[in-house]
Predict the structure.
Amino acid sequence: MWKIIITIILAAVDIVSLNMRKRKDKMTMTIEQIAKRADKSQTLKCYKLKDGTFLVESTDGKILYPVSVNGTVSCTCADFQRNIKTDATFRCKHIWLLWTARTALIP
């Protein structure tokens, strides 16, 4: 559990520092927004497809969103589609789930 929390905090610091260097004039995610999405991501289910794409369920479990974290980071959810337009480093809870899960598997 602590490894996941530390991973989330380090990722948040990386994104905030990247935002500060590259996008001072644009809207960027705050640590609180990152923590909120990362926390919500912990209860979602994820399915990996043969082509390397992932399907991550919505909070209510009724929708599966295609998510890519290899190369270009993208998700088809409304949160990502809306916020990526003003913040190139924006990450939704579906992307946070994949990043947290991938990091947690590293020994």
Notes: The first strand starts at residue 46 and ends at 48. The chain has one domain: 2-104. Helices lie at 2-22, 31-41, 78-83, 93-104.
